[in-house]
Structure prediction request, 405 residues.
Amino acid sequence: MGGNYMEDSAIFFLELLLRVVLQNRDRIMSLWQMVRDHLYSCIVMATEYSLLLERAVVGLMRMAIRLLHREEVAEEVLASLQILLMIKPSIIPMVSRQIGYGLHELLRTNAANIHARADWITIFTVMKTVGAGAVPPAIVQVPTNPNENPPDPTYGSLEDMADRRTHSDGESVAGETRLSVYSDRGYTSDSELYENHPGNTDTASEKLGNLEDKSSMQVIPPPPTPCNQFTLQLGEELRQHDMRAMVKCCETLAFLVRDAAHITPDNFELCVRCIRTFVEASINGVNRAHHASTELKHPDKKKFKKRKERDGKRRMTGHQQERYYGHNSDDETMVENVPGGYHTMSLQLLDLMHTLHTRAASIYSSWEAEERKVTNEPVVTAEASSLWGKCWCPLLQGIARLCCD
Prediction:
């Protein structure tokens, strides 16, 4: 029984499992934990792209779309999307289209059911990761003991988050440094476990099992607000992105911004930062500039990567080779149209920032008026000083950044 047959069988049983779950939505609470853990294993443990990984990602998005309207499981469904941020960074671009299109459908049909700020943090973080190529942030582990106070991620700085980010494949880091980075960022992928403990399979499995038990208790820290009003730099580290995923995510942002009901004081700043991240990614030549600078800094790494890709293609099965070459040919076709595509997206993002700039005062004023009906000290304020730091200044910085293209 060859590897190709085993993967096809695994995909068949995965699709069968998802079909059974979606047909039994009324009893989802008794099935959810088992299904989520299985999808977690298929997605997080993947060390390279495979059709099984793609179908697991698509299955997770399908379940989220179909189950998000159910109040008893909506919170768990949105939290499960954090699994997508645990995919190995080198693999994310290969499944970014599936995630981007799935996220668009999810918000188009269920955006009205998302209210909590933590859920919007997850949504916008996934969106800019798969669409703009942003580096996934560290995920903070919340203690399971209710008597313990969970860490407050609100005050994390850019430097602290950068220290916890995942290193790229070609970086040579000392063992102790790598262990500390993996520990700080809140999760460890399967390949990293085997790299650090090649002979301790039981320990790796035990750690992975413990992580699965705690995965529902993970939170993504909110992005820090730029404190310097006199710089246009956002501070987001961007990598290579997929053009079609970026276009679809920009359409998703346009859908949210143009419907006044979806943008509230709880997610306004998150939306602005997400749009500014796409502005950084849409600057003309960002992909080519990133590729060229990487080649200049690491010429030996380029040769090693080519050798690794050549060896990997030799081990590919028939359908994997077909998908690999199809994906590359699509990318080449999109690259030929990059200037026009980026120009169109830049205009679209400019329009979105202008829309938010003109609506910011009315959004905050209406929410402040609603809160004053309940309490004399509303949390939301529409004062000019508050709107400048939260809304107007970041939006003007994003608009000015487009002028640097």
Remarks:
- The CA atoms of residues 198 and 250 lie 42 Å apart.
- Strands lie at 140-141, 218-219.
- The chain has three domains: 1-88, 92-135+228-405, 138-219.
- DSSP finds 17 helices and two strands in the chain.
